[in-house]
Amino acid sequence: MRKVKICIFLAIFFISAPIAVEAVETIGIAGCFSRENVTNMPKERGKLYSIVNICLMDGIESIPGVMPVDLSEDAKQARLDEAYLGIAFKNLESGNVSEIVKEFDTKPDYIVYAYLTGLTVTHRESINGANMAVRADISARILNTDTGRVVFVATGTGDADSHQSSGGDDIYIGKDKVPMDTLHNAIDKACEKIQRKMRENI
Amino acid sequence: MRIYGIGAILCCVLEIAMLFVNCSISEAALFNKSKTGPAILLADVGCYGYNKLQDGFLETFWEVMAEKVQSDKDFNCNLVTPGAEDAKAFKVAHIDAIVRGPLYERENVASEVVRYGDEVFGREYFWNEKKLAIRKEKRGRPYFLGEDQIITLRELAKKYDAEYFLFCNLRNVDTKLKKSIFNVDTNYEERAKEIRVETEYYLIDAKEGRVYEGQNITGKTSQILNIVIGEYGKGASVQQLMQVMFEEQSKRIVEDIKKKGLKTLRNEEISSED
User: Fold this and answer.
1) Which of A181, A180, A189, A200 is nearest to A44 (CA)?
2) CB contact under 8 A, A123 and B235
3) Nearest C-alpha of chain A: how many angstroms from B226?
4) CB distance from B13 to chain A under 8 Å?
5) Least enclosed by CB within 10 Å: which of A64, A196, B234, B257?
6) Which residues, numbered 118 to 147 in chain A, qualify as contacts with chain B under a Cβ-Cβ cut-off of 8 Å?
7) Is B88 domain-assigned?
């Protein structure tokens, strides 16, 4: 009996060992920027950026072998400042040493910087009457914190129609008053495309 | 039974310890799909035309371009954004490639390029029409960079593990609003009617310093506008037009490099079907 028990124990140990050994990479999202050539940004930029962050975070959870990590507000701000000052992407200055600050409260293996490269409203006429279509262009750069190199770049675009919205808050994009739902949908679609590209290349 | 219990606990502790050790030792290795093919580094994307383009547009173009090269299975793309010193070295190499190319026109380029060209060739060279005519006949053939640039590029190639460098120059971007022409620098006009984009791209063999020069001009606005109107409706903004143009340009550039650029640099025959 003892031998059998030992065999069972060993079998369980060796089966479970590879599961435990499988490495999980952590990804943190630094935040969102907008390029200066995006002209008709709404006044509530914070709202817009938080939508992008949430949408990107949502899909990353479902990618196998990847674990999203929440960065604290200070760490996020510091990362964004690094990118704004051009430290984050201008690495490899001296040999192979990255210049970005590695150690904050939680150090993820990868950091995602998202950029809003375009946000436009177009007026359309359809069977449902006149409606507006919002289009969002988002691009993301993924940076390896160990080496400081940009590992992956992905762009995504999303379209959404205003007649699909269920009412609620409105937001001004340029002169046009657009339902918040529509903007959310457009950004969500763009983020989904980026995540799909990430999943294909992992 | 106690012994078994203690053994089980010890094993669990060991397993947990292994997990932590493995996590800490294993390097981050996502997005590292092994690819066969030439290692290409997208070294510099710039605007060296008569009018300067906003930096924001150039960065988006870098992203679109990098994505296209990266997602192509035939290339082994290295996405490095060089540091300030190396970026300057790449910029000088880019300008050198522009100046020595047969497509170089002294009238339609940025002042820094004009100054560099005058330094290299001397001003009289550009008044001598015979020499310029000979130069224009050399279109499509690869040429060499300056000796200093070849040496610096060899060193940079070792540093970045690259066989080829790719430089893109968005030389001319024009959007026309009804009848008034305006520059992209202005932020106020939103709706555009016409667009014309000229890009030049230089593929450089890092070892020998040979350059393949290519040019892309999309001046037929009706074709582009059809795409834009089909996708976004009538009131397309400048941003949308630019996005479409960038995607179209990057697609063409990558195709041309695959079909012609690499083959000419390797002295392979280009089949007539291409």
Assistant:
1) A180
2) yes
3) 16
4) no
5) A64
6) 118-120, 122-124, 133, 135, 137, 139, 141-142, 144-146
7) yes
What confidence score (pLDDT) does residue B221 get? 62
Residue A184 to residue A168: CA distance in whole angstroms: 12
Burial of residue B139 (number of CB atoms within 10 Å: 0-12, 13-18, 19+): exposed
Q: What ipTM score was computed for the predicted complex, to two decimals? A: 0.77
Residue B70 domain-assigned?
A: yes
Q: Indicate yes or no: CB of B22 within 8 angstroms of CB of A144.
A: no
Residue A2 maps to a domain: no
- In angstroms, the CA B214 to CA B257 distance is 8
pLDDT in tens, A23-45: 788 888 888 888 877 777 888 88
Q: Is A31 left (phi over 0), alpha (psi -120 to 50) or beta?
A: left
- Beta pairing partners, A158: A136
B74 domain-assigned: yes
User: Is B154 part of any domain?
Assistant: yes
- Between B170 and A3, whose confidence is greater? B170
A13 domain residue, yes or no: no
Q: Do A36 and B4 touch (CB under 8 A)?
A: no
Q: Which of A123, A153, A162 to mutate to test the interface with B (most CBs of B within 10 A)?
A: A153
pLDDT tens, A160-181? Answer: 988 877 777 888 888 888 889 8
Is A92's CB within 8 Å of B235's CB? no
Q: A90 to chain B: which residues are within 8 Å by CB?
A: 81-84, 87
Say which CATH number the domain at A97 has: 3.40.50
When divided into structural domains, chain A yields a total of: 1
Task: Look at residue B230 in the predicted model and tell me its pLDDT.
Answer: 67
Give the structural domain span for A95: 26-201
In chain B, whose CA is at the least distance from the CA of A9? Answer: B8
Q: Is the residue at A185 inside a domain?
A: yes
Establish if A16 belongs to a structural domain. no
How many domains would you assign to chain B?
A: 1
* B84 touching chain A per CB within 8 A: yes
- For residue B226, what pLDDT is reported? 66
Which residues in chain B land under pLDDT 70? 1-28, 33-34, 175-194, 219-238, 269-274
What pLDDT, on the 0 to 100 scale, is given for residue B181?
A: 44
> Any idea how long chain B is?
274
Residues of A in contact with B187 (CB under 8 A): 37, 39
Residue A107 Ramachandran class (φ > 0 left, ψ -120 to 50 alpha, else beta)? beta
Q: Strands A170-173 and B210-218: what pairing?
A: unpaired
Q: Which residues of A touch B32 (CB under 8 A)?
A: 151
pLDDT at B224: 65
